[in-house]
Amino acid sequence: MPRHDFHRSKFHSQWCRSRTSRIVVIALVFALFLLAWLTFDSIPVKTSHWKGSNEWQGGPVAFPWEDDQLPLAPMQDKHVVPEANRSNKTDISLRNIVFNVAASAHLWSKRKEYLKLWWRPDDMVGFVWLDEKVNISQEEAALLPQVFISEDISKFRYTNPTGQPSGIRIARIIREAFELGLPNVHWFVLGDDDTVFSPYNLMRVLRKYDYKEMYYIGNPSESHASNTHFSHGMAFGGGGIAISYALAQSLSRMLDECLERYTSLIGSDDRLHACITELGVPLTKEIGFHQFDVHGNIFGLLSAHPIAPFISIHHLDEVDPVFPKLDTLSSLRRLAHSMHAEPSSFLQHSICYDREQKLSLSVSLGYAVQVFPHILLPRELERPEMTFKSWNSKRSRGEFDLDTRWFLKPVCNRPVDFYIQNLNVNDNQTVVSTYKRDIAVDEKKRSSFCLIHSFRPEKVQEIQVVSKALSDHWFLCRFQEDNVVR
């Protein structure tokens, strides 16, 4: 064989072997891919249904707008506490929390009544910090926190042209409270004299956190303008601020010096936030704190509370009474009764549907029940209706840093409202609450010639809601559901 033919034959043989190897490799890869795809395709897919855990009574076995219903798959118990949550929970009682209320002497005669709504002198530790002395009878002193007069702040500079130096006094309350040296303190809680707290729910929330670490807990404002002006990462003091012992200790060492660096700030919340920021501690948001930088009727906010324990309400003098035909204080006393009777379930939102009559029911436990004459999906009902206005008296969804829905203007589409009359908790932890119909809505519907085929006033005057008290695992995902029973 000629030399060049030998080399060509050798090269051809090597190329054939190389091509054959590539074909074999590609075939093996394709076979493995096909096997994996067939295996994945044979795995059964689990279908999720809109249904809560077994702890919640009832459930939307059939939605009223669906004709063909599928059986619901059995649900696994979702209320298993993750290992992380078990290890992070700390033992705490109300006496481990020191409440500090910022107050002024010229508003004391009115604001002290708000304090009486939530203060429990036999179970709690706390103080009222006033700017001047006030006269308090011995009988009244037994119903209120101990009153202190704040230290003189004349040595501090205040250069904001529109604010008041009282912001410095209120910002220093955390230092004055810490320097009292009380034993067994885990948390310092700050609030205003027009703040109403749910102490039990606050204790449950703080139980999630380690007081030996530096925590700054609260919530920003509902107002987008307020958050933009101050900070979206600032806890607003009227809604309440919880400061761990470790953070209070660090703050007390540097607060006075820090305040001198922020003489141009307007109030106490922003000063406190500025100094905490210097310590590198971010805001831990808990949505149960409510600043309520709003005006007008707050029914929409109270009737669609987020799925979280209610902790506080604020600006009680700036909003309408929460019940019709009652003044502000009388309304709050009725609301506080529900809050104390069953705090864990207070204002917790439930959604129910009546298939036969095509009705939607929205329940705010301990406050109100709304019955809509048509179907509203959960995504709509969980949003607060804009019955209220912003702090600058504008009524626009863009004014708020929360989801809202427009007020239903056609009278005939408006729900019938039922307000709380009584709430009791049985020995088996069953919550029984009764709600009475507001006839003012019926009168408006009658004058507008609305055709009411169901839920007539002569048929339904009261609604009774039976539920279970909220478990200790409230922070896990769930949605409270109901059955409608005639």
Number of helices: 14
| CATH architectural type of the domain at 89-291 | Alpha-Beta Complex
Q: Could you state the oligomeric state of the chains shown?
A: single chain
Strand content: 15-25%
Number of strands: 18
Distance between the termini: 104 Å
Class inferred from helices and paired strands: alpha/beta
- The third-level CATH topology of the domain at 89-291 is Spore Coat Polysaccharide Biosynthesis Protein SpsA, Chain A
Largest sheet: 7 strands, mixed
Q: How are the strands of the largest sheet arranged? A: 3-2-1-4-7-6-8
Low-confidence stretches: 1-17, 36-65, 67-87
What is the top-level CATH class of the domain at 89-291?
Alpha Beta
Helix content: 25-40%
Question: What's the mean pLDDT score?
Answer: 83
Radius of gyration: 30 Å
Task: Write up this protein.
With 486 residues, the protein is an alpha/beta fold. Among the domains are: 203 residues, Spore Coat Polysaccharide Biosynthesis Protein SpsA, Chain A; 134 residues. Helices cover 29% and strands 18% of the residues. The protein is built from 14 helices and 18 strands. A seven-stranded mixed sheet has the order 3-2-1-4-7-6-8. A seven-stranded mixed sheet has the order 17-16-15-13-12-11-18. Strand 11 and strand 12 form a beta hairpin. Helix 3 runs parallel beside helix 12. 35% of the residues are buried. Keywords: Membrane, Transmembrane, Transmembrane helix. It holds the Pfam family DUF604. InterPro entries: DUF604.
